[in-house]
């Protein structure tokens, strides 16, 4: 075992000792740090500077109470968080997640991933993440508004266009961003356009932001396939989720000529052998805020299956997990490979377990890791920040073309680093090294802070 492998193992042991209950954070630290060992061996100065000891610690963690009143005039209390992980290359940037599963481990994992994802975009943004264990599902618009106002009444103290710029994530869409922005404007008595991204088009939002993560995923996967002279046309694609990422991944996959046969929500998944009717999915989810099983009201010949894990047993050429973290475990990975799946592109944040990723790589599956493949959302968020700073509004085509260019550059950068460090098809290693390198250089240049 090399000196740098020992160093990384010591850091991972330190993470376990300090945060024994934070399994998600431990996993992402292991995924990133073990893959950058070849880079550290060529750059031993980072060990001397104790850079890993610093990079695994958030610069700031904010936790606060969110008390609000529901429509029955009953007081509800939730927990709110913001993890400001790293600002070496720019203001903290990352989404807010409203979901019952939210805890500090999940947010630290997401913030850590966000640091390197944001670095990969080539744009000047650091990494952060936040949210609450509040569940918007089943709440009225009035209840969501009251919660968002209570949440922002505390959060506003810690954010700003040049400090920390939150965006949306699971449970936080255009409705929630609007309420959050309105409350920020009220308590700050200022129109800081760039304080949040994912805003509505009438008050500083960017065209293509809604589509960005799903579109970006397909742009990355297409770059990966083009390098192997493989076409997306007529490929059978399995997609999980039915939120923004999944919806626009389906849309772009269909534009590229692929046949998408599944989508899902937290209750179960639908399988449509004729290809998913995206208009029906949008009506169910975006207009009615319904459950995906309602798809059968539109297509009687489709199938609905309770539970989400079964979706990875559907035979396909390409799998695009777009729902949530760790949705593909080792058993699911084995089913995908056994059924002939040759490509996996991560649309959600770290949706594959470490064991699943290792199995894909060992079985020659072309694997597009989340921090590279799903960076389109934060890239367009940064473009929204640029438009806000310049008081400009770019066309859909302008933003989409910039997104294509960014995703192509991310692919090339990940591929170049994978090749340089000896494993040309290991884009996990390539993306981690490419993202880490920029942050490490900035941290080193700025001294011990």
Provide an overview of this structure.
With 449 residues, the protein is α/β, with parallel strands linked by helices. It has 17 helices and 13 strands. The chain has helices spanning 3-18, 23-35, 37-42, 45-48, 51-55, 104-120, 141-155, 174-188, 212-226, 244-255, 278-287, 330-338, 354-362, 370-373, 376-390, 396-420, 427-445; strands spanning 60-69, 75-86, 92-98, 127-132, 164-167, 236-239, 259-260, 262-264, 268-271, 303-306, 318-320, 343-345, 366-368. The chain starts with a helix and ends with a helix.
Any low-confidence stretches, pLDDT <50, length ≥5? none
Cα-atom radius of gyration:
21 Å
Strands in their spatial order, largest beta sheet: 1-2-4-3-5
User: What is the chain-wise order of helices and strands?
Assistant: HHHHHEEEHEHEHHEHEEEHEEHEHEHHHH
Ordered list of secondary-structure elements with their pairings:
Elements: H1 3-18, H2 23-35, H3 37-42, H4 45-48, H5 51-55, E1 60-69, E2 75-86, E3 92-98, H6 104-120, E4 127-132, H7 141-155, E5 164-167, H8 174-188, H9 212-226, E6 236-239, H10 244-255, E7 259-260, E8 262-264, E9 268-271, H11 278-287, E10 303-306, E11 318-320, H12 330-338, E12 343-345, H13 354-362, E13 366-368, H14 370-373, H15 376-390, H16 396-420, H17 427-445
Parallel strand pairs: 3-4, 3-5, 6-7, 6-11, 11-12, 12-13
Antiparallel strand pairs: 1-2, 2-4, 8-9, 9-10
Helix pairs in contact: 1-2, 2-6, 6-17, 7-8, 9-10, 9-15, 9-16, 12-13, 15-16, 16-17
